[in-house]
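User: Sequence recovery, please. Input:
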């Protein structure tokens, strides 16, 4: 073994294999034509062969290509997690917007993938460290010359295949083949560029929206008494596990028995990532015009202009994302986990307590409050107290298909707990005795090893239906229903229709609150008799609206 490891060709070929692993994996998992697969293997492979001959010392070549090695390891974990797709723009943005505690939770439950990466990559890294300054550890001139000739030949063959792909290939999302979309690692580096571009646009947003106004006003009659409206944003809750929609387990006993509740069974989000879906819920942006988040304020500003005292209360940590920027348009905002001392795991019932406090301190004012829950975010069994554990076992929670029963039990317990939180909020609003309403939607759903693809979690650039079908639930008080029966009639009429939450939530909340602005669209509000049947687009990783038929996994 010692003699084997002293051969510099071992490190050369080991590095080459590490670099090619993602290309091999993607060629198997991604929908490609034959020429696309050949291109994906030959063109990068030829260039890797050449790259690894720059220095005579293969250890130095390893460090020259280390960024590619790192991306390779990242890509292999994603292939394990999602079964396909490249490292997306959203995933790079998540690196700077995801809290360390969430990363720790996720990695701790991806042990098979993490162990696999360690076993495959770490020995090569150790060998490169040891051999970087080892005297005489060099590739022979003859080997480098041969490798370069092979590299040139393979690269030229890859270029021929690329030409065929460009002329005949088709990308599953864009309808045509392009290097920036389909050729690894070019597509990953392009995604890194786009992530940086979007970060810069976010930084410039404050100046761009400083003079923006909705010119909003309140239209409800003075005899409405006090008005309190609450918009609840769920986290990772999928509609198919809600009892109110016919799920076999009674996960929503409170909502199912509460008067005034209207549930929309055909609601769908346009993104399976939190940092895109939540901004669309909080603003007038949707998949077809997502760039509005860079140019316009959100729903909290609209209610503020109409004379409401506004608040944004989150059970998530701030992460410098659009969610924070839109939330901080409120008159007051709170991130409960930031204010708590020494506790990472704060249950969503704390949002109800914060709402209670706000309603008491602002008892003479009309209120609009956005509550951002932690909902059903993985790890599921940490999202509810033991008193809400109806289905068990809810352990172990490692992200492997063999644990699906326990994972599903824990997930259903989170939905039961969400039901408790929502019914508690409704009880508080009903006790006000005035005109009040609640509108709840989840940002996206979740995969829980539901079929033979063994998909888990969310945020894959090519989502499943489990990630897109979300709950949308409204409640109105007795007073609201008496004063504005046309709103209740419209919601009842629209109950069975397909609703695109990303496009409709903003307008539906304005409709419930009686807020008039030129930015309100009847055709997008479930509170309107003019709700339109919208074509269903998914907001791609590149912020392109893609017809859902092109991208969704059934």
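Assistant: Recovered sequence (554 residues):
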């Amino acid at each position: 073994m010692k003699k084997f490891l002293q051969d510099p060709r071992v490190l050369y070929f080991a590095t080459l294999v590490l670099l090619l692993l993602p290309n091999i994996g993607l060629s198997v998992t991604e929908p490609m034509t034959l020429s696309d697969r050949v291109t994906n293997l030959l063109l990068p492979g030829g260039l890797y062969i050449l790259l690894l001959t720059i220095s005579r010392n293969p250890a130095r070549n390893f460090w020259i290509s280390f960024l590619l090695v790192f991306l390779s390891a990242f890509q292999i974990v994603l292939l394990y997690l999602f079964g396909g797709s490249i490292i997306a723009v959203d995933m790079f943005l998540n690196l700077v917007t995801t809290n360390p505690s969430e990363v720790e939770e996720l990695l701790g439950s991806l042990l098979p993938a993490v162990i696999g990466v360690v076993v495959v990559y770490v020995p090569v890294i150790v060998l490169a460290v040891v051999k970087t300054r080892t005297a005489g550890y060099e590739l022979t001139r003859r080997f480098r010359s041969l490798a370069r000739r092979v590299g040139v030949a393979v690269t030229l063959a890859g270029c021929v295949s690329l030409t065929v792909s460009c002329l005949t290939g088709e990308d599953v999302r864009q309808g045509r083949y392009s290097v920036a979309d389909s050729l690894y690692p070019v597509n990953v580096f392009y995604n890194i560029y786009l992530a940086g571009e979007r970060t810069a646009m976010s930084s410039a947003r404050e100046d761009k929206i400083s003079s923006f106004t909705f010119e909003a006003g309140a239209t409800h009659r003075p005899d409405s008494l006090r008005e309190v409206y609450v918009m609840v944003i769920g986290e990772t809750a999928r509609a198919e596990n809600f009892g109110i929609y016919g799920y076999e387990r009674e996960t929503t006993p409170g909502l199912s028995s509460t008067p005034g509740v209207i549930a929309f069974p055909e609601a769908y989000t346009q993104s399976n990532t939190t940092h895109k879906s939540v901004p669309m819920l909080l603003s007038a942006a949707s998949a077809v015009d997502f760039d509005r988040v860079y140019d316009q304020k959100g729903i909290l500003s609209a209610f503020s202009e109409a004379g409401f005292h506004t608040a944004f209360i989150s059970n998530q940590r701030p992460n410098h994302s659009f969610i924070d920027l839109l939330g901080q348009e409120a008159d007051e905002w709170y991130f409960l986990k930031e204010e708590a001392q020494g506790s990472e795991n704060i249950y969503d019932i704390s949002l109800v307590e914060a709402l209670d406090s706000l309603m008491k301190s602002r008892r003479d004012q009309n209120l609009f409050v956005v509550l951002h829950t932690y909902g059903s975010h993985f790890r599921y069994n940490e999202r509810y107290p033991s008193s809400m554990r109806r289905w068990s076992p809810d352990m172990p929670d490692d992200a492997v298909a063999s644990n699906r029963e326990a994972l599903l039990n824990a997930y259903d317990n989170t939905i039961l707990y969400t039901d408790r939180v929502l019914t508690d909020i409704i009880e508080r609003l009903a006790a006000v005795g005035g005109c009040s309403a609640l509108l709840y939607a989840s940002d996206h759903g979740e995969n829980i090893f539901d079929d033979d693809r063994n998909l888990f979690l969310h945020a894959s650039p090519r989502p499943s239906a489990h990630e897109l079908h979300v709950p949308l639930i409204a409640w109105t008080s007795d007073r609201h229903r008496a004063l504005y029966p046309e709103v209740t009639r419209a919601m009842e009429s629209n109950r069975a229709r397909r609703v695109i939450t990303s496009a409709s939530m903003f307008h539906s909340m304005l409709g419930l609150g009686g807020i008039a602005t030129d930015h309100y669209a009847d055709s997008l509000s479930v509170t309107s008799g003019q709700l339109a049947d919208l074509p269903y687009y998914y907001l791609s990783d590149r912020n392109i609206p893609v017809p859902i038929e092109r991208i969704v996994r059934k």
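The two ends are 49 Å apart (CA to CA).
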